[in-house]
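Here is a tokenized protein:
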Amino acid sequence: MDVEIDPKSVRHSEEYVGTAYGELTREARVAIELVARTEGILLDPSYTGKAMAGLIDHIRKGRVRPGSRVLFVHTGGLPALFCAASELLGG
């Protein structure tokens, strides 16, 4: 692929990390369940779940406009999903 990305177009935020790296946030839990149910994609509680929670929040707040192109990079982390199974299942 011949793709050029202007560094000024990349946005970075740490406001969705929560209080600790391995701690599942409520927003990440909601995002993990939503994406699993609607897209069949499994997100982990440490990285992609929190990142998706941030993306969803940005969409809801209008920071991402309708029709915009968004690239969400899913970096893996599936084993961490099993480590948080009891939290994700409400146990």
The mean pLDDT is 87. The chain has four helices and no strands. The chain has one domain: 23-88.
